[in-house]
Amino acid sequence: MEKPPKSVDARTARRSRGVPRSQPRPGLTPEAITRAGRELIERDGLDALSMRAVAAELGTGAASLYRHIADRDALLVAILEDIAARLPVEVPGATAGERLFNRLVGAHDRMAEHVWVLHILIRGEFVARNALPFSDACLADFLGAGLEPRQASTAYRACWHLTIGELLDAHPLTPPRRPNQREQVMASVDPERLPALAEVRQLDRDEGHDGHEGHDSYAEALKALLTALLPEKDR
Fold first, then answer.
1. The pTM of the whole model exceeds 0.90
2. Rounded distance between C-alpha atoms, residue 218 and residue 147, angstroms
């Protein structure tokens, strides 16, 4: 009497047909993973980013993500690339100064929406390739205005450092309690001991500012810096 055929489970059947044991989850793409990672960071903070946490956001297992993105660092770079791709490169302006102003203000406003990125960039570990056209365009305008390569590099770094510094100062990751210790100290400046500082602080108050250092807008500071860096004809 013949023996009944043995049952074949689905996994064995897949192997016998040459089908991989597991397939990428339908709809799961590098773009979807990158978007979920960025949203996770901007909701819960940079420390919350992990492959497991992003997988949970997408309703899948971490193993599914590794078929698309190698690891957390690769995911972080992908997020940086996505943000950097939107930095302005071609901008209006009849002079180098006007183009630099428009490009840098545009980059500032873009980065203000993702201030956490700056905390990655200042560590010097990662760079987004998509940011390179922005840097190249800025350097080209400085060179086109007659600056030597070393001068152009220094000028661009000065503008970029102004941008980063203003963003970190004016857009903290966690807004401080008000009034905070810094504001209390600055409000108590003694005009006899620190007359210049007291005069500026009083000017801030007269103009309706809250006493926070660096109240001048980024655009005003950038305009002053570019005026100092560029020849008059190119401002």
1. no
2. 24
